[in-house]
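Q: Got a minute? One more chain.
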Amino acid sequence: MYWIREIAGWGLILVALYLLRAAFLFLLDLETPGIVEAAVLSVAGLGVLRAGVLLIRISTAARVCQLERRN
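A: Always. Here it is, folded:
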């Protein structure tokens, strides 16, 4: 079961990196820099990143507890 959480966590991290990249590209637009759009995407990306890291932490803790229970 913990593998599903870990895969979901890594998937969320990839989505967060994509959102942060999109925010960076909004700032690099030379014609009309989208500061508001970049801020919204940055906040969303950081929230998704935090959720992904949380899922990976929970998955790792579950794996450690399962290994400890076997010993």
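A: Residues 35-70 form the longest helix (36 residues).
Q: Perfect, thanks.
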